[in-house]
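seq as requested:
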Amino acid sequence: MVTSGLVVRSYSGYYYVDCAGVMITCKVKGHMKQKRFSLCTGDRVQLEVNPDKADEGMITAILPRRNYLERPTVANLDLLVITLALVQPDFSFLIADKLLILAEAATVPVLLVLTKADLTAEEQRERIAAVYRKIGYETFVISSKTGEGIDALRKRLEGKVTAFGGPSGVGKSSALNAIQPGVLRTTGEISTKISRGKHTTRYTELIPFNGGYLADTPGFGNVLMENLEPEALPACFPEFRQFEAACKFSPCSHTHEPVCGVKDAVRENRVAPSRYASYLSILEELKENKARNRR
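struct tokens:
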């Protein structure tokens, strides 16, 4: 029988595929091994189910992807949830913007979650949230301690394939457990079953979460910009687009050019100064990476 399903994890050459709620353990068919292919968690695949063993099958094709993150490796995310604390540690515009660029470059839908609202004055949290809401990024302000914002976030994520990204200590674990109590225990149990510690995760896996799946994404706190070309960076700042028509040169780096619509917008506070500062910092980082790779 030929059917299709979602790859929820892989291990030692086996792929575990969810087919309408039935888990099928699969290997890759021979003709696919002879071609160059990159099968990863989150892929939707076509498979042939073993007529003698309904829980075994062979993957015959990878269906077209909607999006793809290279690091951590996962495909077809419905949402990337960027999680950052308002305080303890203090909110970092640069880290937030780097993670947003990661999503923009991979064309992954994204929303921002600001945690520890109970420790922050309303004026401060709204000031930060307003920067991103003005651009068009959906932004939730939550407190796992008081429950503020949790119900709304749970409803927004219901039925989605979601990844949470952000540095350690920002309250990701508390937020996840507030949305679905025990979800992190499930993560640990799965890691144990396939004989690897939960703190040495190498492969992304999808865990049942809130009617959909949570991508257990290793190393998502370390934002690496090395695969992005400096020339591609402006496109990752969506608020720049409406002002680029006023730039004298195309393409424009929005740095040293004498006539630049984006720089004018920054001076007029139509582009947040924090966003432009992040842009300049990240652009310099990308240029340094490119120069280093040429050596």
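The longest strand covers residues 2-11.
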